[in-house]
Specification:
Chain lengths: 112, 184
C-alpha cells in the first residue's frame, strides 16, 4: 500500500494505492495522526486505487473518522468502489462514514 | 432460503455442534501453523481451488482471510506450535468452509451477540452518534490492529450459516452464490 499526499487549497488529499489489509492499514492511521500534529484540518481519503480492504482497513477508517470528528475537523472518504464498497456495505457503515462519489464532490462537501 | 443465523430479526452467531455444516464428507483439507505473517498466503492457497464462475473473488478471499486471522490470532494467540485446520469445498453455487483452531474457544460469543444487537438497534434508528460506541468489538486479545468489525460482515456474507461447535474453537460457514442463467 502506498500513501501519497497532495494539496488542493486548504484541503489535503491522501491517495491510497494498493491493498488496505491486516499488514499495512495502521500506516494510514499513523499518517493522519502526523498530519493532525501538523495542524491539517481538512482531509480527503481517496480510495480510487484500492481494490481490497479487510476489517483492519475498515478499522483504520473508523479510527481516523472518529479522531477527526472528535477534534471538530473535516474528513471525506471518496471513490469507494468494487469489493471495498461491498465490505463497507456488509459492515453497514455506508451511512456512518462521510462518503462522496468523486474528489470534486468531496471538495464541494468540505466547502459546505 | 432462510438464514440459519437469523434470530428474531437480528443475525446472531449460533452454537450448534450438530449443524449439517460440520459434515466434512468430501471436503478438501489443509493445515497451517499459526503464523500471522502468512494469513493471506494461506488464504490464497485455499481460494485458488474456487471455480472461475465465482465472481467477487476478492470478497470471498477477504471473508475467508478474516476467519483464518481470528483462528491464528484470537484462537491460537499466534503460537506457531498450534495449528489452524481448514476444510473447504467450492462450486459455482456455494462456498463451504470449516475453520478450526487449538485455542480455548470463542468465550465472548454471547457478549458479541449482545453487542451486535445494540449495534443493529443504532443502525435501525440511523443513530450514528450512538453507533460510534458499537463500531468495534473488543475482547481480551484485541489490539490496535484489530478492526473489531470482521464478524459483523461475516454474518451478513455467510448467508447459509455461520455456526460454532460446542467448544467454540471451530466455525462452519456457507455462502450461496446466485445461479446464473445460461443462454439468451
Amino acid at each position: 500500500m502506498e500513501l501519497k499526499i497532495r494539496k488542493s487549497g486548504e484541503n489535503y488529499i491522501i491517495d491510497v494505492n494498493g491493498e488496505m489489509d491486516l499488514y499495512n492499514s495502521y500506516r494510514l492511521k499513523e499518517l493522519v495522526m502526523k498530519m493532525l500534529e501538523k495542524k491539517v484540518e481538512r482531509f480527503i481519503v481517496n480510495l480510487e486505487q484500492v481494490d481490497y480492504i479487510d476489517s483492519s482497513g475498515i478499522g483504520a477508517l473508523i479510527y481516523i473518522c472518529s479522531t477527526i470528528k472528535k477534534m471538530n475537523l473535516r474528513l471525506v472518504i471518496t471513490n469507494i468502489h468494487g469489493s471495498v464498497k461491498k465490505v463497507i456495505e456488509l459492515t453497514k457503515l455506508m451511512g456512518y462514514f462521510p462518503i462522496t462519489p468523486t474528489i470534486e464532490d468531496a471538495l464541494a462537501k468540505l466547502e459546505e | 432460503m432462510k438464514n440459519e443465523n437469523l434470530v428474531e430479526g437480528v443475525l446472531e452467531i449460533r452454537v450448534d455442534e450438530n449443524s449439517p455444516l460440520f459434515d466434512r464428507a468430501g471436503m478438501l483439507h489443509k493445515e497451517f501453523p499459526s503464523d500471522f505473517r502468512q494469513i493471506r498466503y494461506f488464504t490464497l492457497l485455499i481460494v485458488q481451488s474456487a471455480p472461475p464462475e465465482i465472481k467477487e473473488i476478492n470478497l470471498l478471499e477477504q471473508q475467508i482471510s478474516e476467519v483464518i486471522k481470528n483462528a491464528v490470532k484470537h484462537g491460537n494467540r499466534s503460537n506457531p506450535e498450534k495449528k489452524v485446520m481448514v476444510w473447504y469445498e467450492f462450486s459455482p453455487e456455494h462456498a463451504h468452509l470449516i475453520v478450526e483452531d487449538e485455542g480455548q474457544g470463542f468465550k465472548d460469543l454471547e457478549k458479541w451477540n449482545a453487542f451486535n444487537r445494540n449495534r443493529q438497534s443504532c443502525l435501525d434508528k440511523q443513530d450514528y452518534e450512538s453507533l460510534s460506541e458499537y463500531v468495534s468489538f473488543r475482547s481480551a486479545t484485541s489490539d490496535d490492529n484489530d478492526g473489531g468489525n470482521a464478524l459483523f460482515a461475516a454474518l451478513e456474507y455467510w448467508d447459509g450459516g455461520f455456526i460454532f461447535n460446542q467448544k467454540r474453537n471451530s466455525v462452519a460457514m456457507l455462502k450461496r452464490f446466485p445461479k446464473r442463467r445460461h443462454g439468451a
